[in-house]
Amino acid sequence: MRELRFIGITGGVGAGKSEILKYIAKHYMCEIYLADEVAKEVQRSGTECFCRLLRLMGEKVIGEDGELARGKVAELIFADSGMREQVNAIVHPAVKDYLLERLESAKRNPKVELFFVEAALLIETGYGELVDEMWYIYASDTIRSRRLREARGYDEEKSRRIMASQLSEDEFRKASSFVIDNSGLLTDTYQQIDKKLEAFTWQE
């Protein structure tokens, strides 16, 4: 049986990571996890992560449904500069533990050849030491700004502010073993992926 490959997918906002993962999910024997979605999962009511966050921030951050109210958490983080670091120190390890558990399960599944984790912050949160490969999804700032305007309604100033808060292109490239240029047509991007994954099972 082929040894499973653990691949991190990262890149700046608007680079097109989601579209690339949709393609991979359709055509390869893989499991894909989005770190943002996992973070929501590990913070659900009753989890250890939820209880620790509650002790940190207090019951004022609980919504009517008994779950953490994202808006209230955001307000608290915005008002207290040290709170974000404390929250991240609870959430990021919980996300990592969740993913490593899923990885071990995937290794025992003969129908899984590739295990992908996607997040803009994979490099900053230490996944470079865990993954077999780190892929950087690249697109120019101009193209990313246009995509953010069309898909999310962001104006140029908001897009520029978000991009400035993330790693630079040089930093992404330095920390990654493979770069996908997603500035052009998706068909060109797909060709890059297929060439990279030609040793793995293709599914129509």
What can you see in these coordinates?
The protein has a domain at 1-29 and 113-196: Rossmann fold (3-Layer(aba) Sandwich). The mean pLDDT is 94. It has helices at 17-27, 35-42, 48-57, 70-79, 83-107, 141-152, 156-165, 169-174, 186-196; strands at residues 5-10, 30-34, 114-118, 133-138, 178-181. The chain has a five-stranded parallel sheet, with helices on both faces. It contains nine helices and five strands, in the order E-H-E-H-H-H-H-E-E-H-H-H-E-H. The chain is an alpha/beta fold and 204 residues long.
What are the SSEs and their pairings?
Elements: E1 5-10, H1 17-27, E2 30-34, H2 35-42, H3 48-57, H4 70-79, H5 83-107, E3 114-118, E4 133-138, H6 141-152, H7 156-165, H8 169-174, E5 178-181, H9 186-196
Parallel strand pairs: 1-3, 1-4, 2-3, 4-5
Helix pairs in contact: 2-5, 3-5, 6-7
